[in-house]
Every structure is written in structure tokens, then in C-alpha cells.
Amino acid sequence: MNICYEVSENLGSATNDSLGDQWPTPGRRLVHIVNLTLHDIIVVADDVPACEVPPSGLYARVVELVRPGDNLHTDRGAAPTATVSYLPKVIDLPEPVTDTIYIVSRVLASAVRRPDLYFPHDEVRDETGRIIGCRALGQFEARDA
User: Fold this and answer.
1) In this structure, what DSSP letter does residue 137 have?
2) Ramachandran region of residue 17, left (φ > 0), alpha (ψ -120 to 50) or beta?
3) pTM, to two decimals
4) Which residues are bridge partners to 121 per DSSP?
5) pLDDT in tens, 46-85
């Protein structure tokens, strides 16, 4: 289920028995989460998965421009290099929808700075160092106009 995030706003007397324990506390409403990355997002609280959001099938991203560079000759061998920049163009990012947030890459969230965009923050890793979840959904502060 990908409805697992609450925001502070008055809910009135709404109820929804189908959500069981996931129904928000009084005075809060549920927000729908859409995962616009290619990976399952698992938010962990106290070392237990608290919220799992599968990919939606859309992959929102900032257009990346990559120019090959020279090889970097090191004491461990040659390493190819590249110069990377991001164009001011975003692909597959839906327009804002009431009561919906989008999980996107940190790069996209930084570039666009919309209040409905979040990214996995404070990654949780397994014993081999592989990312298996995050402890929070992060958001960048809005830029000054």
C-alpha cells in the first residue's frame, strides 16, 4: 500500500475502515504517495519497515548532458572521466495533484523545488553496504524568488 504519509490539516469527521491502523490521527489527512523512481522505496522506523512504495511505472528525471573526458591515469590504472551537467528540462514529472506527493531522485528534487516532491533521505544499508531503505523522506527548502 502506498498511502502512508500524513500531513497536518483538519480532516473533520472522515473515516475509512479499509485503512485500519494506517488511518491518520485526528486532525490529519492521508496523502497519496507516487514513486517516480525505478526502485522500491522502503521507509524504516526503529529498524522496521514502516512504509513501502513500489515504483509507479513512471520515471521522472532531469535531462543529463554527459561529455566524455580524458582518461585519468592513476597508480591503479586508467579511469575514464566524464563531465556531467543537467539541462533545465524534466521528463515524466506530473503536475501537482491535491493530496499527492511524489518520490523522486535527490537531483530532481533539488532542481525543481516543488512542495510535493520528496526524495529518500538518511539511507539504511545492509551488512554489505547495499541500500535497503531510508529513515525519512527528505525535501529541499524552496528557493527565494
Assistant:
1) E
2) alpha
3) 0.76
4) 136
5) 889 999 999 999 999 999 999 999 999 999 999 999 999 9
The residue ranges of every structural domain in the chain are 3-138
Concatenated DSSP letters of 50-92: EEEE-B-S---EEEEEEEE---EEETTEEE--EEEEEEEEEES
Tens of pLDDT along 80-108? 999 999 999 999 999 999 999 999 999 99
| Residue 68, C-alpha cell as written in the block | 566524455
Please name every residue paired with 64 in a beta bridge, in sequence order, or none if there are none. 86
Q: In Å, how far are 42, 66, 77 from 54, measured between CA atoms?
A: 9, 29, 39
Amino acid letter, residue 117 = L
Query: How many CA atoms lie less than 13 Å away from 139 in the CB half-sphere?
Result: 11
Name which of 100, 106, 110 is nearest 136 in CA terms: 106
